[in-house]
Amino acid sequence: MDTLRPREFDEIAALEQPSIVASMWRYRWLVALIVALFIGLGLAFQAYVPAAYRATAEMTVEDPRTSSLADALGLGAINSNPARYVADQVGILQASEVEAKASELVDEWRELAETDPEALNDNASIAWLANDPSQVVGMSIPLSEFHANTSISSDRESNRIEIGFSADTPERARVGANAIVEAYREVRTAELRETANTTLTRIREEQDALQTTLAQLRFDIEQIQLSDETRASLLQEFEDDLARFGQLQDRLDELDPDSEAADTVRQQLDDLLQDFQTFEVIDRIQQRDANLQALQVQQDQVINELADLNTQANSIIISVNLQGAGITSASAAALPLTTSGSGPARILAAAIVLGLAVSAAITYFLASRRRAFGSRTLPELVLNAPLLAEVPDFTLEGIKSSLPVTQAPTSASAEAFRFAAAAVDIRASAAGAKSLMMVSATLASGKTTAAANTAIAAAREGLRVLVIDADFGNQELTSLFLGEEQPAAGITEVVAGLVPLDQAVRQVVVTDDRSLYLLWRGRQPVEAANFFRTEDTQRFFTEVKDQFDLVIIDGPPLLQVAYASTLVRYVDAVVAIVAHNSRVGELEEVADRLHFIETPAIGYIYTKAPLRAEMTASEGSMKDILGLGGESAGRTPAGAGSRIRRARRNGEQ
Question: Is residue 1 part of a domain?
Answer without folding.
Answer: no
